[in-house]
Each structure stands twice: as structure tokens, then as C-alpha cells.
Specification:
The protein is mainly alpha-helical. 55% of the residues lie in helices and 0% in strands. The chain contains 10 helices and no strands.
Length: 226
Amino acid sequence: MKLASPSETLFSPLIEQAIELSAQWHDQTYRKKRWRDAPFEVPAHAILRVPVIAHVTAVALTVQRAAWHDEPIAAAFLHDVLEDANRYGRQMRMEELREALGEDVLRHVLDVSEEQFDEAGEPIPWRPRKEDYVTRLRDTSPGSAAISLADKLHNLWSINQGLARGVNVFREDEQGRGLSYGPEEQLWFHEAVLGATEVYDDPRLAPMRERLRSEIEAFRARTGPR
């Protein structure tokens, strides 16, 4: 079997296209809160916010650093495009994502996307939506589990960073929106995701689970009874 040369594996057109599409889709959309001091001076009336592309990049780099191949990495850059509307209020269609990146990437993104609406077009409440996500995660693939772990890891790490700085991540204020649900619900969900990935024995998942577990314990320590 002929092995690919370093020059052939160094650059991935698939990942490059995923980065471009993700940056275009999430352009001028932002994370709920900021957990660091402003790194540079902004006008007095301005609020410096964290672009969503920073989150999806952190997720994709985590998947890459855990030694996954191109399709899960590309899907990690795009893991929010089916759930989140762009700045024009438009939802991406599955057919568009399939046409742009292929069936494998689409399948990974579908695996880690929540069902937002029921058959009647009504919004699904938070808890049933999360329960369905966790159930489906147990029957996807190790690559999709890696994307989910990286996503929840970065989310919870960001929350913990904010809590450590005294940011009220559960309340809407001038810095942005608060989390949809409180500490108990957040703790349940992240622990449920962690548990759901235990059905996969791929060794690349082990350090990802270990790091998420440490963030869960940090969150529990910061939000538990005093």
C-alpha cells in the first residue's frame, strides 16, 4: 500500500472549504458571553464580543489535536450551521451542506445537531431536545462523538472561565445573553453527553472525555451548594 506523502496530507481542500463556509455562515454572529478582559481598546460605547467562528475553530482544533481525520475536522468547523441561523435569519438546508462538503461531513454535522422543531413546526422544549441529542449520540460514530465532546468541552471551559472572573453566565446583561438553563440542568446535560460517548472505545476519545470530566468537576465546584 502506498502511503501519502507529507505534502499530500499537509493541506486539506475539504477542511479549507469547511473553514470558508463556516466563516461566511457565522459572519457577524456572536457567543452569548465574553470571559476575558478586552485585549485592546475599543470606543466607550462599544461592546467587544466573541465571534462564533472563534468557538467553532477551537472545537475543530481540539478534534484535530486528538488525531481525527479530515471529515470530522471539517464537520467540527460546521457543527453549528444547521442549528444556528446566519445574520440574515436564514437556516442552512441539508442539501446545501451536502452539495458543498459531501455526505460524510453532512452526516457528522447531523449527528451533533439538535432537533429544534417538532413535526408541527413548534419549538421543542430544552430538556426533551437535549435528551433526544444524548440518545442519538449513543448511536452515531466515534468521529461524531469526538465533535460532540470537543464542543461541550469548549462550551463548559468558557463557562468556567467566565465564572472564575465573576461573570454571571446565567443572566442577560450588556455583555450578552445568559445561558438558557441553570447550573443543575447544565451539569446534567454535560454529564449525559460524557456518559453517552462511553459506548465508543476508540482510544482517541479517552483524553477528550478526561478533559471534559475535569471541566464538569470545576463547574460543579463553582456552582454547587456553599
